Amino acid sequence: MFHLALRTAATAARHGASLTRATTRSSLTSMTVVRCMASEALKKNPGLAAPRHGTGETDEEFDARYVAYFSRKDIDGWEVRKGINDLQGMDLVPEPKICVEVLRACRRINDFALAVRFLEAIRVKSGKSPHIYNYIIQEIKPVLDELGVPTLEEIGYDKPELALQDPYKD
């Protein structure tokens, strides 16, 4: 883009046009190039990058979109973290089938810590409803065993490590 602006300014000076008009034309050209690049990127990765505001997406379509995103074979660590961050930013607890694909994606990129952090995030997102977390663990337990990922309870992450006893509690 910088080279394009310099070349346009040099061409404008050569033809006697104003630099402002050349810069504006250069900016419009570069914005068009960026728009084309963005649309090409969306065609290559139709997953999470497309804005979904006001589309009226059903729960099944939402689940299918995230399952397809995390089940890609060429997904890298940044994309997995981006997808997990997007999921955690929403006011929902992901379905077990999405959790399974996230864990499999963590296995594909060989990131055990991210898988454990995802389980912790699911536990936090469940909030004061432990039955939601227990349901998800029950549904994804076969995949956890297959991948060799322990549950939070199995590695002791369900209790604070350095918590002090309440002196006022009997």
Question: How would you characterize this protein structure?
Answer:
It is globular and about 55 Å long. The N and C termini lie far apart (69 Å). The model is unreliable at 1-9 and 19-39 (pLDDT under 50). By secondary structure, it is an all-alpha fold. The protein folds into 2 domains: 2-44; 59-147, Cytochrome c oxidase, subunit Va/VI (Serine Threonine Protein Phosphatase 5, Tetratricopeptide repeat), CATH 1.25.40. Helix content is 65%, strand content 0%.
* Overall pLDDT: 79
Number of helices: 7
| Percent helix range | 55-70%
Q: What class would the helix/strand composition place it in?
A: mainly alpha
Give the SSE map.
Blueprint: H1 2-15, H2 19-44, H3 59-70, H4 77-88, H5 96-108, H6 112-126, H7 130-147
Helix pairs in contact: 1-2, 3-5, 5-6, 5-7
Which key terms come to mind for this protein?
170 residues, mainly alpha, Serine Threonine Protein Phosphatase 5, Tetratricopeptide repeat, 7 helices, 0% strand, disordered N terminus
Q: What's this model, at a glance?
A:
The chain is mainly alpha-helical and 170 residues long.
